[in-house]
Amino acid sequence: MPDAPAESVGSSAAAADSRPSRQHGQVSDEARADERRFGVYTAAVLAAGLVAAAAVSAWLPFEGSVHLWWIGPLLALAFLGAEQLGVNVDVRSGISWTISFTEIPLVIAFFVAPFEVVLAAHVIAGISTLLARRVSGRILYNTGAFFLEITSAFAVAGLVKQALGDPAGMPWLAALAGTLAAPLASCVLAMAAVRVLRRRMRVGTVLRLAGRILVVAFVNASVGLTGYLVISTTPEAWPIVLAVCLGLAALYWAYSDLLREQRDMEALSDVSLMVARSGQQAAARPASRADEIRRGIDVGEWATIAERIKDQLAAGRVVLRLRFEPDEAMRVVVAGEPLPADDVPADDPLLRLPGAHVRHVRVTEANPEVRAALLDRGAQEALVVPLRSANQLLGVVEAHDRLSRWRGFGKYDVQLLGTMASHLATALDNRRLLATLRHDAYHDPLTGLLNRPGFRQVARDPLRERGSCVVLRVDLDVFSTVSDALGYAWADRMVMAAGRRIRDVLGSDVPLARLEGASFAALLVDCLPDDAHPVAERLRAELSAPYPVDRLTVEANAMVGYAASGVEENSEIVDVDSLLQRADVAVRATRGGEEVRGYVPSMGQIFLRRFQMVTQFRQALEEGQLSVHYQPKIALPNKHVLGVEALVRWQHPEFGKVDPDEFVPAVEAAGLVGVLTSFVLEESLRRARRWLDEGLRISVAVNLSVRNLADAEFPAKVVAALERFGVPAELLTFELTESGVMADPQRALPILRELHSLGIVLAVDDFGTGYSSLAYLRQLPVDQVKIDKSFVLGMGTDLGDLAVVRSIVELGHSLGLTVVAEGVEEDLARDQLEAMGCDVAQGYLISRPLSEERLEAWLQARTARSVGRQSETVLTLLT
User: Fold this and answer.
1) In CATH, what number does 452-599 get?
2) Are 56 and 154 in contact, with CB atoms under 8 Å apart?
């Protein structure tokens, strides 16, 4: 029999239990509308059944030969027994098919009882079965269905009888046709109920169901008809008839077991697919770990799973109690009848049942505590199984009161629920693992903030859907310093503290990411550039406050750049990566005292130019765009030309003359400074070799980068170059900044000592502007100090600069070092330096940096040649 998406009752099509899954006893408006439609449908079925019964009763008088009073109760018991022996098969999406044996007493009833008696017996048996199974919500509908089943059966039998023209008795063919009409009427009513409840069934499914109903009804009716005819003519043959009936029942039960295994496997597959699909939906976007886990166990998604389990077990209610997090209380998902009370105490006996297997408890057999827990749930029996993973309780599944069989849950139900629970526990554990992996993929492990991919995911939709968004980029400039001085553990503490400060300023709803190192990014949604600037200022002020790390206080400085989605170039639509890049450009533009900058298109042109220079650098070397200029240095007071400083110049075909302060830092950042140093060194040594060939001993000074001092092979490269050009090591000077050496002294000092041991002169450039000149100068293996030109330029008007220059000269001489003053542009400065005892002067007063050809002309025009004590030519600057 079709069960019209709910409980089946023998040959009747019990109405669909249209109540959807409920959470905390809430019923949706859609469910209420379904109930109203089904109420109208119930009234129509009941009215049609009563009218049809009255019509058939007046049309078909009983013409049989049996008029015993006990035939009515006997038929009722027969119908009742046939209902209880029913076999449920092929449950599919809430539609179940019940093989019952009601056709056997029905086909016999055509010969032994009048229509009214058969109708009453069938209705009484059906309603009694419904009440015994606690199906109280569909009594009126099922009553109307019972009336229409028996009425249609007798109406078809009467029509066939008239067609056969047999006025006496009931022909067996008419009884068989009438018996087949009853389940078909039940099927039609059930399909109509499905449509009323707006549940879908495919046409193929309906046809297959009707075909099975006709086949089973025909077999049952044939067995009942044959048995009646045989016994009526040969009473002693009843054992054979009984054996046939028992064999048929055994075949049904065997078929039922096979189909049950099949539908149990389908149910397990359905549940697994539901969990997998909900997991894919949960992966929509990155969020916090708690949010990930909650989406991984979404209540709405699991309500559908609970409904599927309820249909498969034919239970009155299924309750899923799921624990989202270890310290959180279980949340309740209910399918079927709502719970009388959602909250259960922590020591609830059903939740404390021992073991990891399914426990089957009944009110009639349980101890007082379990009995009270069942009654609190409004249940007479329950299957309870915990969901565990690695001794961790993930949840509990409860199934209450089986409806499809009078005897309650059986061993197959216990096995099925246990297997489902195992699958659900594994699925829950996998979902938690996937949520953790997803969180780790989109979040920074140190701060718990989003990482770059996570920020890109979160920002994509707001940038696409909102009008104006601003991306903030925040950089702390002390991260590497703290890492080198105190170690990465201390630097990590600063980063975590900075992340907390940013979160406090922006709030918990603003997407915030740690990009790398001490760089952060935030997305301000529905924010204009003018509104972003005060936020950036507030961030910078908060992040620049001292950081108390354990017992230390670390000073810090922050730079903030921001870019708005409305600031577009060439009407291009900007994406997350473009805004991050522009905000990074704005941060780089904060150098020079302005710590907060907003992106403007001109910044993009500047950094595009730098990018082009970096990418074209090697080509520029090959094409001869780079050249070396030389600035002379003279001795004080005799004005001998001692050497030159080699300075690189770039004549770009598109940009023209490019300042070294522009392209050298870009080349250095791109990791090409080694190529640049090698080029300058080669050109300088080639020039020094030509001077040697002319009898001149003029030294060349080459500037070194901090990256050169990190190259362990650099001294060997220098030795090879000196040998290749045949230049003595003492004619080569390397100038390096104090800050460059102290950026990584553990790697720089061994390189410097090796260069110094070769006889190469080492000079500290820009002296007085580094970390701590007095503290580190004695540790460096240097021969010269160069006074920074900012002090030399100002000493004519600033007594403080004059005092600094005098102190450096005295300090250098006390340490046995040669003192070089750069930036000498006036005669007064030269005279003051000479009076102080400064050794060497360099600056525009003497000469600007000159190309190789102009330097030759300068030497010939402004110097006098003389033979020194070692028969070497000495150049002296002409006054």
Assistant:
1) 3.30.70.270
2) yes
Residues paired with residue 842 on neighbouring β-strands, in sequence order? 822
Q: Is 138 exposed, middle or buried (0-12, 13-18, 19+ CB in 10 A)?
A: buried
Tell me, which fold does domain 614-766 have in CATH? Answer: TIM Barrel (3.20.20)
Q: How far apart are CA 750 and CA 771, in angstroms?
A: 19
Q: Taking phi first (over 0 means left), then psi (-120 to 50 degrees means alpha), and beta for anything else, what does residue 823 get?
A: left
Q: Distance of CA 350 to CAs 344, 374, 402, 409, 421, Å?
A: 10, 8, 18, 17, 16
599-638 pLDDT, tens per residue?
877 776 677 777 777 888 888 888 888 999 999 999 998 8
Tell me if the bond preceding 660 is cis, omega within 30° of 0. no
**Tokens 């230049």 sit on residue:** 727
Rounded Cα gap, residues 277 and 285, in angstroms: 15
Are 664 and 637 in contact by the 8 Å Cβ rule? The answer is no
Instruction: Specify the amino acid at residue 627.
Output: S
Tell me how far apart the alpha carbons of residues 65 and 79 are, in angstroms, rounded to a whole number.
21
- Domain borders along the chain are 29-233, 269-442, 452-599, 614-766
CA terminus-to-terminus distance, the chain: 123
- Tell me the C-alpha distance between 51 and 367, whole Å: 51
Tokens of 714: 């650099």
Residue 715 half-sphere exposure toward CB, CA atoms < 13 A: 16
Structural contact between residues 648 and 662, judged by C-beta atoms closer than 8 angstroms: no
Kindly report, residue by residue over 709-750, the tens digit of the pLDDT.
888 899 999 999 999 999 999 999 999 877 667 666 777 888
- E strands, 823-872, are 840-842, 863-867
Q: What is the CATH number of domain 29-233?
A: 1.10.1760.20
List all residues 6 or more positions away from 233 whose beta carbon is below 8 Å from its beta carbon: none
Whether domain 269-442 has CATH 3.40.50.720: the reply is: no
Smallest CA-to-CA distance from 500 within 449, 575, 465, 556 is with 449
Contact 319, 309 (CB under 8 A): no
pLDDT, averaged across the chain: 78
Burial class (CB in 10 A: 0-12, 13-18, 19+), 682: middle
Indicate the pTM of the whole model: 0.49
Cα torsion angle, 680, 681, 683, 684, sign: positive
Tokens of 364: 């009639």
Query: Span 107-117, mean pLDDT?
Result: 82
Handedness of CA 224, 226, 232, 237 (dihedral sign): negative
Phi-psi domain of 263 (left: phi exceeds 0; alpha: psi -120 through 50; beta: other): alpha
Give me the amino acid identity at 857.
A
Output the CA–CA distances (angstroms, integers) from residue 800 to 502, 788, 794, 807, 836, in the order listed: 41, 14, 9, 11, 15
Beta strands in 732-790 (DSSP E): 732-737, 761-767, 784-787
